[in-house]
Amino acid sequence: MTARTVGDRVAYYRSAVRPPMTQWQLADAANLSLGAVRKIERGERSPSTETLEALADALGVDPDQLLTDRGTAQTRVHAALPALSAVLSAWDFPDDGPIRPLPAVRASVEEAEVWRLAAKYTPIARVLPGLLPELLRGFHSAAGADRQIWATLLVRAARSADAAAYKVGARDLSARMIDMMRWVAPSAYDPLLESSVAYVRTETYFAAGTHTAGLHALEAAIDNSPSPDSAPTSAARGALHMRAAVIAGRAGNGAAAKLHLSEAQTLGDGVREDVYCGTAFGPDSVRIHEVSVAVSLGSAHAGRALDIAREWKPPQGLPAERRSGFYIEMARAQLWAGRADPAFESLKVARRIAPQHTRQHPWVRQDAATLRRLKRSDSEELTNFAEWCAAI
Questions:
Q1: Whose CA is closest to 352, among 119, 57, 65?
Q2: Structural domains of the chain, ranges and CATH numbers in brackets
Q3: How far apart, in whole angstroms, are the C-alpha atoms of residue 317 and residue 320?
Q4: Contact of 63 with 52, CB cutoff 8 Å
C-alpha cells in the first residue's frame, strides 16, 4: 500500500464524515500538526503505526480501513488474539526472556490502561502480547514485596488485554484472562485489587447470560470488600454496586437493581469523579449507570433513560468508553420510544467518542439494522454507518 493510497483514503474519510472535517480539524483531533496531515494526504509521508491509529480514531474508522478498501472490524485486534491465547497457555511456565526495571514496566502498564479507558484496543493488541510475558517472568521470579508489586502490575495489564478481547467478541479468551487475574490477585495482598477483579469477572456472566449468578457473585464481592471509610474503598464498593445494579436489571430483578443503584449513588456522592483501581467511579459514572439500569430493565423503563438525557450529558472528563456506552444505551431507549432520528444521532455521537468500542458493540449493529428497516428511504449516511459497524 503506497503512501499516496493511504493519503487518498485519509482525505476520503475526512470528507465523508458528517459534517466533513477540515485538515486542521483532523490534525487537532489526532494530535498531529497540520503540516503532517497535509503531507500524509499528498502522499509525501507514510504514517507510522501510531499516527495511523491516531488518524483512524479521529475519523471514526478502523486503521485497516485506511489501508484497504473494506476491512473486517478490528482486524488488527483479532490478529493479536492467538498471541494473547499463547501467553495464557504458559502463564505458569513463561518463556525465558528479558525483564526491564520495574519503573519501565509500570509505565508500560499505565500506558495500556490509558488506552483501555480511551477504548483504543488496537495499541493494546499491539503491545500486550509482549508485555504480559515480561510481567509473568517478573512475577514468577520475584519474592516478598517485589512479588506483590509484580502481581498488581500483571493484573492491571491483563485487565487491559481482557478489554480488547472482550470487546471484539473473544469471550473464551476473555474468560481465561479473567481466570488468570483471579489466580494472581491474591498474591498482591490488596483487597481493592481483588474487588476490581470481581468487577471485571462480571463480563463472564454477561457473556453467558447467567445474570442471576453474576448478581450473587457481585453481592458476595461487596460483602468481602473493605469498609467504605476512604475515597478508594468507597469507590471500590460503589463500583461493585453499580455493576450489580446493571446485572440485576438484566436478570429482571428490579428491586435488587434499585437497591444497588441507591447504594452506588450514596457512595458516589461522597467521592469526586475519578478512576479508582482501573474503574471510573463518582457521581457522573453513577448517573450513566442509572441509564444502564433503565435500559437493562427493558423497554417499559425507557422513559427514565430519556428523562436523564434531557437534563444531563456525560462530561468530557469521563473515560471515552463510558461516555460512548451512555449514547449507545440512549440510542436503544430512543428506538423503543419511536424516536429513530435521535437514536441515529446518539449512535453517531458514540462513534465520534470511541469508534472501536462503538463498532464492536452488538447493540450498535442491532440498532443500526433496525434503523435501516425503519428508514429505508433515508439515507446513504445511515447505510454507510450500517456497513461500518457490519450491520449489513
A1: 57
A2: 1-71 (1.10.260.40), 72-188 (no CATH)
A3: 8
A4: yes
Q: Which three cell numbers stand for residue 325?
A: 456506552
Q: Report the alpha-carbon distance of residue 150 to residue 140 in Å, rounded.
A: 9
| Other residues' Cβ atoms within 10 Å of the Cβ of residue 326 | 27
Q: Which three cell numbers stand for residue 78?
A: 483479532
User: Tens place of pLDDT for every residue, the chain, 392 residues?
Assistant: 555 688 888 888 888 776 788 999 888 888 889 999 999 988 888 888 888 888 888 887 777 778 764 444 446 788 889 999 999 998 888 888 999 999 999 999 999 999 999 998 989 999 999 999 999 999 999 999 999 999 999 999 999 999 999 998 999 999 999 999 999 999 999 999 999 999 999 999 999 999 999 999 999 999 999 999 999 999 999 999 999 999 999 999 999 999 999 999 999 999 999 999 999 999 999 999 999 999 999 999 999 999 999 989 999 999 999 999 999 999 999 999 999 999 999 999 998 898 889 988 999 999 999 998 887 655 778 888 888 888 87
Is residue 166 helix, strand or coil? helix
Model pTM score = 0.86
Taking the C-alpha atoms of residue 242 and residue 261, their distance in angstroms, rounded to an integer, is 6
Query: What is each CA distance from 86 to 15, 164, 312, 373, in whole angstroms?
Result: 41, 16, 44, 42
